[in-house]
Write a structure and sequence with these properties.
Helix content: 25-40%
Order of helices and strands: HHHEEEE
Strand content: 25-35%
Largest sheet: 4 strands, antiparallel
Structural class: alpha+beta
Radius of gyration: 17 Å
Length: about 100
């Protein structure tokens, strides 16, 4: 019984220490407040850098694949957000999609 209590206490402490967790909707809202339809690739990349996000561009799918390295500090079971920023042929902002991803062992 004490083992179960300690495990639950540890779990609660981990969750309490994760007050910075962000939802997919909050990330989409943040992007929407900072990028307008047609924002240039320069504006998009400045935004990513200001947020401290790591990104790469997938030219085959015309999108940026982005992640927040701050999520690496969270326990694995809480998952990570996959941020996909779609652009047109001139790399101007079209839309953003954010999904919560979980890795299993």
């Amino acid at each position: 019984m004490k083992l179960l209590q300690r495990t639950l206490l540890a779990f609660c402490l981990v969750l309490a220490g994760c007050g910075q967790m962000t939802s997919a909707q909050e990330i989409e809202d943040l992007v929407a407040t900072r990028l307008d339809d047609g924002s240039s690739s320069r504006e998009i990349e400045i935004f990513f850098n200001e947020e401290g996000w790591i990104y790469g561009f997938d030219r085959h799918q015309s999108r940026y694949q982005v992640r927040d390295p701050n999520e690496d500090k969270l326990p694995e079971f809480l998952g990570r957000h996959q941020i996909l920023v779609y652009v047109d042929d001139q790399r101007r902002f079209i839309r953003v999609e954010v999904e919560k991803m979980y890795n299993s062992l």
